[in-house]
Specification:
CATH architecture: Roll
Structural class: alpha+beta
Number of domains: 1
Bound molecules: cobalt (II) ion
Number of strands: 9
Strand content: 35-45%
Oligomer: single chain
Order of helices and strands: EHEEEEHEHEEE
Helix content: 10-25%
Largest sheet: 9 strands, mixed
CATH class: Alpha Beta
CATH superfamily: 2,3-Dihydroxybiphenyl 1,2-Dioxygenase, domain 1
Radius of gyration: 15 Å
Length: 134
């Protein structure tokens, strides 16, 4: 079912400071911040040879990462995104296996304009998993 890692998302309390650390201390290529109000985050992309890291800062009152940052005030790994070829087939197979899909179970259009779903972290060893159809 799983293809390559599309991205690893890290929630950060200060995206300017995090961008500076990735750019200057780690020597990575870091994009300009993009506000994604419909997702409740501001994001920068750290481009790596084999994948990318997304740094996420809360945006707005109902940010889906606000509670995570309350529990992890320094920031931390928020989710890992795996690519799938057919997100509805993947969902149906997962649900049949007893895994829980978050929300109403229907894919949403994610930050890259492609359909995504999230899987309950308690079903996958404490890691929030995003599936993205590519
Ligand atoms: Co993501």
């Amino acid at each position: 079912m799983l293809g390559r890692i599309n991205h690893i998302a890290i929630a950060v309390p200060d995206i300017a400071a995090a961008s500076k650390a990735y750019r200057e201390t780690l020597g990575a290529a870091v994009s300009q911040p993009q506000a994604l109000p419909e997702h409740g985050v501001t994001v920068v992309f750290v481009e790596l040879p084999n994948s990318k890291v997304e740094l996420l800062e809360p945006l707005g009152e109902a940010s889906p990462i606000a509670a995570f940052l309350t529990r992890n005030s320094d920031g931390g790994m928020h989710h890992i995104c795996y690519e799938v070829a057919d997100i509805l087939a993947a969902r149906d197979q997962l649900v049949a296996s007893g895994a829980r899909v978050l929300g109403n179970g229907e894919p949403k259009i994610g930050a890259h304009g492609k359909p995504v779903l999230f899987l309950h972290p308690k079903d996958f060893f404490g890691t929030l998993i995003e599936l993205e159809q590519v």
